[in-house]
Amino acid sequence: MRFRYQARDKNGNLQTGDVEANDSRAAASNLMSRGLIPVQVNAAGGSKPTGRNDTKRSDTTLSIGSVIQTMRDALEPQVDLDQLIIFCRQMYSLTNAGIPILRAIEGLSDSTQNKRMKRALRDVHSQLERGRTLSAGLALHKKVFPKLVIAIVHVGENTGQLEESFEQLALYLEKEQDTRKRIKAATRYPSFVLIALVIALFVLNIFVIPTFADMFSRFNVELPWATRALLGTSDFFVNYWPLMIIAMTASFFGLRYYKATKNGRLLWDSLKLKVPIIGSILERSMLARFSRSFSVMLGAGVPLTQALSLVAEAVDNAWMEKKILDIRRSIERGENLSRAARQSQLFTPLVMQMIVVGEETGRIDTLLREVAEYYERETDYDLKTLTARIEPAMIAVVAVMVLILALGIFTPMWDMMSAYQGG
């Protein structure tokens, strides 16, 4: 059987031609044995037309398959960042050692423990056997492989530098994982303190303060304002705590729903960057993510406008994503990168200086990598000192609660003791 192919040689040059083989897999193996990287392998013959009944049957099969696919996605575990890093590292080692892509994907699909990753890699392997490219196979599983991964793999295929692309991806994902872990570790302590304060507030108002209220009511004396405020708050908690729980639950899910909308996510992501102390850390972290991912994309040879589109998704912030897409539109209208970036008012003077110098010297990717390392060091230092900066605010909140309790509970007790001793 004759197959028509497109393949890249070791220098990245595109070659086309025909090859005789029993199937597409054998054709691809034949090309790789000749030192060519298959890009596309198709049978030389045409496809057989299908009738109306075949079309209906195909539509029914597709609808049933989509339902089964949805059920599988709900039951199977997600592919986390660790598994993507392992995949990129293994693909780099295998391709660098000269292992054919078909054999590499087949081996990884057999060895991985994640069911969703295993199923995706097996489908990618079948797509490669049919003559499709690796990036096209990965693009069919966007819930497993991000667009950033697919784009860089696509560039690596077209330039004949697939192993370098996987190495770049592994380094980028490792940096991203490290940043996420540092942010989670730094915000864990303040979260626990806030949860403990909320629980303590409920316990005091429902169980502790009512006991003192019964004692004060027996003396029939005028209570100070702090005590009256505490008793009023406690009565509200005791009488309406089911409604409070319902309101808090409804507010939580309502906020979640609003955040899922386009306008809600844009507003939420912009407000996050304005939160005292934490907002500046998040902004520097996202600038580091932008600089590193943009550097990786430009270094891999991705076109500027396409790189901006992919980086906009990589920053994981709707407000910053909108700004980056505005930069891309300005470039498409004919402006240069530095002027479009300055008009967006998104970047600090350091990033702007690096972009201008990089544009003049043709080394934007290198300079942005240095910017990313600078912001990563800044973020790391801020995260290490975050607990020390938040602790005074936490202590102040606890001190205010203790002061109100002392004024509301102990002041009337002291007055009653004074009246008793005077009497």
List keywords for this structure.
3 strands; about 425 residues; Receptor-associated Protein; mainly alpha; three-stranded antiparallel β-sheet; transmembrane helix; elongated; GspF/PilC
The rounded distance between the terminal residues' Cα atoms is 114 Å
* CATH class division of the domain at 278-384: Mainly Alpha
Uncertain ranges? 46-52, 54-67
Strand arrangement, major sheet: 2-1-3
Q: Helix fraction?
A: over 70%
Strands, helices and their partners?
Layout: E1 2-8, E2 14-20, H1 24-33, E3 37-43, H2 52-75, H3 81-96, H4 101-111, H5 115-129, H6 134-139, H7 147-159, H8 162-219, H9 225-260, H10 262-272, H11 278-300, H12 304-314, H13 318-332, H14 337-344, H15 349-361, H16 364-384, H17 386-422
Helix pairs in contact: 3-4, 3-8, 4-5, 7-8, 7-11, 8-9, 8-11, 8-16, 8-17, 9-10, 9-17, 10-13, 11-12, 11-16, 12-13, 13-14, 14-15, 15-16
Description of the molecule:
It is a multi-pass membrane protein. Residues 87-210, 290-412 form the Type II secretion system protein GspF domain. It is found in: Cell inner membrane. Belongs to the GSP F family. It comes from Idiomarina seosinensis. This protein has a three-stranded antiparallel beta sheet. Strand 1 and strand 2 (14-20) form a beta hairpin. Helix 15 (349-361) runs antiparallel to helix 16. It is built from 17 helices and three strands. Among the domains are: 2-41; 77-172, Type II secretion system (T2SS), domain F (Receptor-associated Protein, Up-down Bundle); 278-384, Receptor-associated Protein. It has 423 residues and is mainly alpha-helical. Residues 46-52 and 54-67 have low confidence and may be disordered. The chain has helices spanning 24-33, 52-75, 81-96, 101-111, 115-129, 134-139, 147-159, 162-219, 225-260, 262-272, 278-300, 304-314, 318-332, 337-344, 349-361, 364-384, 386-422, and strands at residues 2-8, 14-20, 37-43.
